[in-house]
Amino acid sequence: MAEVHDIDARGARHCETTALGVLLRHEGLDLSEPMLFGLGSGLSFIYWDAKNLDFPFLGGRVRPFDLTRNLAGRLGLDLRVQETTSPRKAWADVTAHVDAGRPVGLQLDSGHLDYFTPKVHFGGHVVALYGYDGHEARLVDTAQQGGAVTTNLTGLARARAARGPMTARHRSFTLSVPRTAPPPESRIVPAVTACAAVFLDPPIANLGHRGIEKAAKLVPTWLRRTDDPRRDLPQAAFLMEEAGTGGALFRNLYRDFLAECAQLVGDRHLRTGHALYTEAATLWTEAAALIAAAGELGDEQDLVRAGNVLRDVSRVEREAMRALVRLEDGRAPA
């Protein structure tokens, strides 16, 4: 077994931040998962419905790997990305890093991993690989999936080769921390304001606060959108609360990021944003519970109530981001 030593194999709540944490701790940079998520301007929202989808999808973060790119750019990290259509070269790229003593991140389709539950296909899943032999690989995934896990190489190859929404061409990546990298706390304001600006002024109506408002209007129609409400509505609620989001569609992570920032920066706009995202997180969990109940009981009134909650969410998050974007004007009096 070829293996990178001194790996801190903590599984966190979200896949991409879990992998980033493993890679950066190996480089000597230990940041909390909320800090990784927030410095990567990871928070977003999308209401996604298309002809090829069986049911609408509510997404709460930026596109897969954008968080990694954002974080690397903001912290001055050396991000090396490799992609190829050749499975043989893709595996050689990965093993070369491990043989050199460095863990490597992989983007793949979680549905092909033998340990992964539930068996759903998601092409934007990210893991850290730190060991391998002729039969299996050693990975770090989320705490929900077991943290430090092993998977057979056949399934791993299928997961990396999968094509479809949000997949990449056998993408692997490494991170290193240059000596000239700025202190993470110095990058808090740019990270917060960049995230807020995009959220407040989305290019299309199904993104950002406008997307949440759109969801508020459309969620009450979901019983008419599905042939199997007992499957689709609880599944939508599960994806909001349990599927690597950290709860409340990533709002718990962003709430905790803002709390950590407020301790470091001491800004009243940050404290306002934190208070409002604490409220928003509670509302998202309430909306998910109502959506699940509607699927189980078939009562459209639960969806009407969920729509009303989401309307409140849109207002609360808009107010939060309006406060947070003002950090561009300089630190407010404490």
Main features:
11 helices, Cathepsin B, Chain A, 2 domains, two-stranded antiparallel ribbon, DUF4872, BtrH_N, BtrH N-terminal domain-containing protein, single chain, alpha+beta, 47% helix
Model description:
Residues 14-142 form the Butirosin biosynthesis protein H N-terminal domain. It comes from Streptomyces argenteolus. The strands form 2 sheets. Strands 1, 4, 5, 6, 7, 8 and 9 form a 7-stranded antiparallel beta sheet that branches. Helices cover 47% and strands 14% of the residues. It is globular, with a radius of gyration of 20 Å. Helix 8 (229-241) runs antiparallel to helix 10 and helix 10 runs antiparallel to helix 11. A hairpin with an 8-residue loop joins strand 2 and strand 3 (57-61). It has 2 domains: 2-30 and 78-176, Alpha-Beta Complex (Cathepsin B, Chain A); 184-329, no CATH class. The model has no long low-confidence stretch (mean pLDDT 95). It starts with a strand and ends in a 10-residue tail after the last helix. The protein is built from 11 helices and 9 strands. By secondary structure, it is an alpha+beta fold.
SSE topology sketch:
Layout: E1 2-3, H1 15-26, H2 33-39, E2 43-48, E3 57-61, H3 66-75, E4 78-82, H4 87-99, E5 104-108, E6 125-132, E7 136-140, E8 148-152, H5 153-161, E9 172-176, H6 188-200, H7 208-218, H8 229-241, H9 251-265, H10 268-297, H11 300-324
Antiparallel strand pairs: 1-6, 2-3, 4-9, 5-6, 5-9, 6-7, 7-8
Helix pairs in contact: 1-2, 2-9, 6-11, 7-11, 8-10, 9-10, 10-11
